[in-house]
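Chapter summary example.
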Amino acid sequence: MKKRNLSALREGLREAIEKAGMDVPSGGIHIEKSKTPGFGHFAVNIAMSLAGREKGDPRAIAEKIKAHLDPVLFEKVEIAGPGFINLWVEQKFYSTECADLAADLEKYLSGVFEIQKKKPIMLLDTSHPNIAKPMGVHHLLSTIIGDAVKKIYKRFGYQVVNDNYLGDWGTQFGKLIYAIRQWGDMKLIGKNPIPELLNLYVKFHNEAEKDPGLEDFGRAEFKKLEKGDSENRKLWEFIVAKSMVEFQKIYDRLHVEFDMINGESFYENKMPAILEYGRKKGIFIDGEQGAWIVPMENPDEPPAIVRKSDGSTLYATRDLARIKYWEDNWHPELMVNVVDVAQELYFKQLFEVTDKLGLTKAKNVHVKFGRMQFEDGKMSTRKGNIILLEEVLDESEDRAMKLAEEKGIELSADERKELARIMGVGAIKYNVLSQNRTTNITFNWDKMLTFEGNSAPYLMYTAARAHSVIRKAETDAKEAAKYTLELKEPAETQLAIELLLYADSIRRAAQEFKPNLIANYLYELAQEFNVFYNNLPILQADSEELKKSRLLLTVCVLKIMEDGLGLLGIEVPEKM
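The structure predicted for these 576 residues follows.
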């Protein structure tokens, strides 16, 4: 298979290193865009990496590599500083890459990633709201980070199964069932389910503070549910169904889809086999007061508990059953859990117990993220302490509408409303996904909804600008793919170089589970395109060949902007 993109450049460097009598480091060859245009298109520090192992001078090693580089691919090579190799790539390479990218971006990326017909499988655990409770803004992070990871890995060549692991089981449902029977009005619940169910749940706890005996009634109702009591089962199914209708409204607004939705209840009948197996293998041993535990390899860490002293199971027991179910049904290469950083120890223990039991050959990953924090203090809400996700989406769309009106965007009322929806939801998603997930995520309305700086509206406006040029030129991607690049100005060359970095941003985002690497790339691409757009005429270029060259670059920018924002789950309006 023909090497594409930066892979072709890496292959050229690898061959030169081997011809120079050296082995390529296990970490591979890292290629960066040159920070200063006059010092090449790309820079490589491989000579410094090899110097220690080869016990040689980095500059001398760099000269050896330079002597064997293909002059057809690399039109110019210079050694700089302590041993950096600065590379200039010949123009024909850019032209071929851009033409293929414009013709069929998905096929182009498949070639870059060398995607095979038989795709590896990833199972993904995301979102997990709690039944009978409203979705708060804290559910946003797992939901949209997980959705972006799903889309990135699908583009990277995986078959991804996204599982919304609902909180739909436990003693709280016994308490809720009791509260419904004591104080509930089924007609009111049917009309406005989540607020009514939440009110009843809160009422139970308020009453239980006055009369602790109510806790026993709640536990008794849940035991009846566990044993299959028909009335309790029917009421529980009603609660789940009504909750899912409300959740789906949020997911529809976010354009998030799941391949399956298996809550904790799904694994109830699958846990006994796990407990029996772990006990039989001597991995689940007796702890204090008869609880079943698994000691950790690190003696300073507390043991994992898989069964309480009263015989009841825990979240970990269900997770072990889930992992076995995933393995038995899909035999995935990766199992990924998108859950906040507070659960770091829990997942470390879960994965260690999984390994001890030998439940799967898959690599288990905890994609952790920080907490949502607000620059202007707590976001206000009319419905108590929970910051409702629905309210946040409503406010974002309202602010986006005002932004569109202030900008004086010439659209019909319906078009403006649709633009406000796209910008509002996109701004929230981009605000989260453009930040490094391993830190706390800062929520800032002013930075989110602006046409300046690193924001969704700025990227959307850049894409719309490219769309406008292509529309006025009365051309399309298929036609532009036939054009040839003529890189005469620095802004053209810089833009062509940036286009080649897209695939690597996807590769790194997948390997590190960091959507922000794609967001960062898109922002840089938008900046390069806007320099190009503002300084060089496209439709009024000096020659037809130059016009076509710049149109090809514009088409490639639009294709990547739409695809990249799509990987982040963000829509792109045609007009702004």
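To summarize the output: The chain has three domains: 5-89, 123-367, 389-567.
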